[in-house]
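Q: My labmate handed me this sequence with no annotations at all. I'd like to see what the chain might look like in three dimensions before we decide whether it's worth expressing. Could you predict it?
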Amino acid sequence: MLFKEISFLVKKEIALEIRQKYAFGGLLLYVISTVFICYLSFKRVVDPPTYVALFWIILLFATVNAVAKSFLSESRGLQLYFYSLASAEAVIISKIIYNLMLMLFLSLITIFFYTLFLGRIIQDVPMFILSIILGSFGFSSVLSMVSAIASKANHNVTLMAILSFPILIPLLMTVVRFSKNAVDGLDRSVNYQYIVTLLALNVIVIALAVILFPYLWRNE
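A: Here is what I predict for the chain of 220 residues:
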């Protein structure tokens, strides 16, 4: 039953995104234009620390803009309608899954234009992709839950930024170090600690979201 509810809600999110093409187009324009501005600024292959920093800055701001509308764009009436159709667990899990899919797609677009304009300097591509997957999972989980909290405070976007920033710092620091090692092509054993840390953070955030969101959901 839970799987069917999650599947239905994810399909609903995808259908709404297809209808609102301007929102997704705006994200693509932001990613492409930002990478192009970086190319105009450097006009050369950048060093690994700069490469990784710019990549996650672009991806983080694109993700915040994309995930912010998870709950903030939904009216109270629409949320009450979902309350009558699906469980709270299905709602938050479906939001996280959809936002993860969206962030992974934005990551692929960013990498493509990064390689096109700034060159390919990633030495260990599989580990770099793994860092993106784990980082995207953490970002989508944290921002989805924070978006739900902010939606209860008169859809305050500023509150979302304030609440998410302290939570994202340890996640961002870990994933930046992980991806930097992948770009440098260091031995994979060096990254095991970062993989375990990211997995632990993701499990904790998902568990908290599933446990706490139903209480938030009942306040409708």
